[in-house]
Every structure is written in C-alpha cells, then in structure tokens.
Amino acid sequence: METHPRRTVLAAALGAAAAAAAAGTAQAHGGHGDRDERRFVKRRLKAMSLEEKVGQLFTTYAYGQTADTTAAADVASNQAAHGVDNAAELVRTYHLGGIIYFAWSNNVANPDQITALSNGLQDAALDGCGTPLFIATDQEHGLVTRIGPPATQLPGAMALGATHDPEAARAAAVVAGTELRAMGLNQNFAPDADVNVNPANPVIGVRSFGSDGEHVAAFVAAQVEGYQARGDLAATVKHFPGHGDTEDDSHSELPQIDHTYEEWREIDAPPFRAAIESGVDLVMTAHIQFPALDASLRPATLSEEILTGLLRDELGYDGVVITDSLRMEGVRNGYGDDRIPVLALLAGADILLMPEHIGIAYDAVLAAVRGGELSRRRIDESVTRILGLKYRLGLFGDPYADPALVDDVVGIPASLAAAQALSDRTTTLVTNDGTLPVLTDGGSVLVTGWGATTVPRIAAEFTNRGWSPTSLVTGAAPTQAQIDAAVAAAAGKGLVVVSTNNTKLNPGQVSLVAALAATGVPVVALGVQNPYDIAYLGDHANAYLATYSYSLDGLESAVHAVLGSVNPEGRLPVDIPTADGTGVLFPFGHGLSY
Description:
Low-confidence stretches: 1-14, 16-32
Distance between the termini: 7 Å
Mean pLDDT: 94
Helix content: 40-55%
Oligomer: single chain
Largest sheet: 8 strands, parallel
Strand content: 5-15%
C-alpha cells in the first residue's frame, strides 16, 4: 500500500511549523563557556544575594490558571502546599528559578490561558529578583501528556520507536517544541532516555523508545535536536543513570537496578551519551539504587558517585542537572525533607524539582551554606549553569510569549495532519490469520474491552467509517457477568474489536477474548498501551495490533489499519517475551503488513 502521501503531508506540516517558528526570535545556543555569556553571568552572579541564588536552584508547582489567582480553591491549595496565595507570591517569596505546569494544579486549561499564565509568571519573576523563570512541563506525549487539545497530540516514545525512523521522532519534537514555546514554556522534561528492557516495568513502559540501547539512543538524539532546534526551548533527558529495568515505581518506593557496570555501559548509557553529544540542555536524575554504580545504595539523585563521577566526569556532561520530583518516595525513603536538597546539591545536582515543602527545603539549603556544609562556591557553580542556560535560551532578552501568535502556531491544521501521519506509521500488526484487512463498506461491529473512554473512541471511529458499532466497556478485570454480556452482544455481528491493557495482571481480559473467540465472530485485539498483551492471549484473537497508546490519534490509526485504509508499517521496538519469560515470542523489529 502506498505510504508516500502521508509523508508528503508530514513534510508540509513541518514546513508550516518552521514558518511559525520563524515568527519568533531567540538567541541561538552557543557553546558552554561563550565569552559574552561568561561575562554576563559573572555580572549577574555578583549582583545576586545568597537568598536569590538559592532560590534559583528550585523549580516547583503552584495552583491556578493565572499568576495572581484569587480563585478560592486555588488560593486554599497554595496556602496548604506553600503558605502563599498564588504563584506570583511564591515566585517572589523564594526567588524561584522555575515553575512546572500540571493539569492537577489547574495550570493548563487552554493555549491562551497557558500563554497568559506564562507571561504573568515572568512578570512576577522580573519584578522580584529580576531573573526570568524556567517554565516547564512533562510533555512527553503519549502516556505522559500535560497539555491536551487543541494543542497537537503526537505519538509517544514507544509508538515513535515503532517507526524505526529517528526522523519521525525529530519531526514530532519540532512540532511539540514550537507549540510549547508559543505558550511561553521554555523547558520540556522530555525525551525519556530509559531503555525498557523489563516488560513488567510499571513506570516507564511506553514512555521509552524501546528495548535496544542503540535504537533508543538514535531516537533520543533526534528528539533532543528537534526540541532544541529553535534555540529557545530546553530538552531534558531522563532518568539518569537509567530506569528501564525495574519492577518497582519510584513514585511510591525505591527501585533497585541490578545491572553490572558493563551492562550499564551497553544498555543504559548509550541514550544519555547520545543526548550529551547532541547538546542536551538538562539531564534529570532517577530515584533508584544502582549498586554497581554506587555500592552505598544511595538513590542516584543523592549519589556523588553517579551524578559527578559518572555523569560529569565519565560522560563529560557540563550542562544542568535537575532532580526528579523530590516529593517521590523513591528519594524520601530514609531521608528527611530538610536533608534531601542539601544531599542532592552535594551529589552534583543543580536544580531541585518540587520539594515536598519549599520553605523547609529553601531554608535547609541556606542553613547548609551558612553553616559551611555547602560552600558558596558550590552554589555559584549551579547558579552559573542555570543563568548560562537562561542566557542561551534568550530569556534575559525576552522571556515572554506573544499572545497574538498562539492561534497561528498551536494546533494548526498542518500540525494536526502531521501528527496523524506520524501516528499512521506506528501501528504494529503483530499477528494476523488473514482476517485483516476488513475491506467491506461498513457493517455491524462490537467494540468492547478495557477503557471507559477508549472503547467509545474506537466505536466512534468505526461510526465515522460507515460502520454500526455497539460499544460495551468491560474494564480492566471483567467479571463473568460482563463477559457473558459481551458474548451476547457479539451475536450477529460481523466483527469484534476488543481493547486490552496489561493482560498479565488482568487474566479476566484473556477470558473475555477467549469467550468472544468461541462465538465464531472474527476477533481483533488491540493492545492499547504496552505491546506485551499478546503473550497471554494465545491464539484466541484472529489478529492483534499494538497501538502503544490509547490516545485518539493512535486509536484512529488502528481502526484505519483494521479497515485497510492504512497499511500497518510499524515494527516492534521491543522484544515480546513468552508468557513464562523463558524466550522471545516476537522479536524486536517484527511487524506484519498487507
């Protein structure tokens, strides 16, 4: 099937994104140590108080859609979290270096609101200590997406990895980075550089480009270059030294990676090395134990052996090091909230992200400096890196976003078309007994399985294609009654499409697929997150497709593939192991087409 027209759409969209980018101006990245930069930073550093310098070390969150919000709920939340009414007061009180946006902190309602919030925050920073802010979010796309529509929704990392084309990842980053900067953000905590070699990984999974270190490295480098192409947005690779082989979630516990040093160099290190060679602006730490790299079992975030000995000395990284959130139990387990920021700075971190209590953390760092545990020189090292990056991003020249340009950049038709064209290249047909493609002009279809929004989205796409779907959500762990209802609903249908998510931990989904298969109606299974579900489905499904995402674009692409309007060209970016873990069921690079 011809795929060139979709690639033509993509090329046109990237041209449109580049044209939109040209409407703004930014100071281009120079090499670290540029003479003008050094002079500028030296003057700024000399003029700053210790309190202002320490404030630059912190990036945290605040509630509200505006910098000076008076909304009662947001004021109450800010008072409970930080002891202030709003973000502007927080920035001025602690001379903050950065703010991070989340949906749960009510920061990302729509592009116009986000742009106004960003500009209001920069006003507060410049009115305070006179240093512009880093404004960041985690816009990885796919599973971790903070800013939703109308901003362009792009495939996530593993979906892009399934294209086996790093240029696809670069294209996605160009579109995403251009839109973020148009809304006033200047940092993106992406891409994820972890190599997902453990199918049971509960925190990375589809956030990774794949299970092969060199494959991930190529995609990470491409995204770093795409995000930073304009020179006014900083990319961040995470989570150093590598979070890909764990079965624990560092949000709630402290995982341990048991790779040897040699395995780290072969598996985990290549993406970080590639990112550094591509000039990445920030590296984010992981809250993990890695005994082969630090026998003390300190979390990597607090490990001088890892952050200074490995990242800076061995890999030669001289940019900004930012911690992962200091609210996570992976770093708080065994350490007080007053000690964590001090230990992270001693280890080699520069930016302290989201401490549990900003006042406690800020005061602890000040006390450590005044008491001699942290030298003023050590503080100056980090602030020099921070100010240098802000200088290279052009923030001292103009930190603001132009509200008049938002509609010309964010979610424009060309970018939406590019996103769909990219998504259409990611869908991976893993098994097929000849049932696909379904080339009839409509018919009756049962859409069932996991996902209260996923199932209706799939059904809606069948409706758009002239089919008559019945939609029945059975959830993560279908009961026998739900399975029986699905079997009854399948009667007389021409096709059953069932979405699955994590069948290893939810065997009821396997029972659902088996029962539907027994009806004799053709069954197509869609693995809508991690691609490993097929290992537990056996031969119950007539065909199995991996979408790597339950985003609207990914589901639309899957339906297109089922109905033959798109020829699936994605190939697995991971090995799919057998259910018992003793072998490989489908290898890296596997993928069928029509």
